[in-house]
Amino acid sequence: MIHVAIVSYFSVGAYDNNTLDENQMLSGILSELQISHEIVSWSDPEVKWEQFSLLLIKSTWDYFDYYPEFLSWIDKIKKLGIPALNSMDTILWNSSKRYLLEIESKGYPVIAGMILEKGMPISKENIESKITSKTWVVKPLVSGGAKNTLKINSENWENHVDKIQSWVKEEAFLVQPFVTEIEEVGEYSLIFFNGMFSHAVLKTPASKDFRVQHYFGGTIKPVNPSESMLASCQNLINEFAADSLYVRVDGVEIDSVFNLMELEMIEPYLFLAISAEALLNYKKAISSRLL
Asked: Is residue 138 within 8 Å of 174, Cβ to Cβ?
């Protein structure tokens, strides 16, 4: 008999405030499909992973806080040979924002930026030689939830350089050009199941903020993407995520061209409650994979 793990995390309220519990929504779907399952934390040392025939990775929202341990867990699951959706190889590739530069190198419009490698000295001149924008967003290469994320102006570099250098001493960071469309319009999220478009939302930051996450006061509303936006996202899915159960494509439109911000393939919030159709599409995708 199939026994499925819904893989979550030990919640301390840091990343799941003001959200509907999609773990429980997924559990409800599996119950309707009469599939045996449990909700477990990826970092729980008591979990006997061998008992599961499949892992559904849903909300490992703290993986970047414990990245070495998360990598060890991925390695353990791979050695045990337990299949996962999304796959462990996909999650490993997607766990570092280095993938953005890979996608950009293949000709896709991406807000990729440049990497400040761990332990290396940083300089304003080096950043300015590669990023034309005068306003930058600095974030860890392995990160989520806007952790240790700064929006800075190049003119105020001296106010931030010591802090950023101390961060880079510990881990690699990404510097990206700040995109004004985030403040003016917002960030689009298009959700795909089994390579097919399901639904989309527009995330708008709170006034005088640039972080679109709901726990920073951002607002979310359902939208219908334009044909060109949908086509751009479908192209990304076809090349980089064709085998994935779920993918959330985050990005902005600049001069009517969709620019990728994130290809979320580890633990994205899927906005399942945004419409009845969204939840139904998720159920159909899971059913086609598991039954």
From this structure: yes
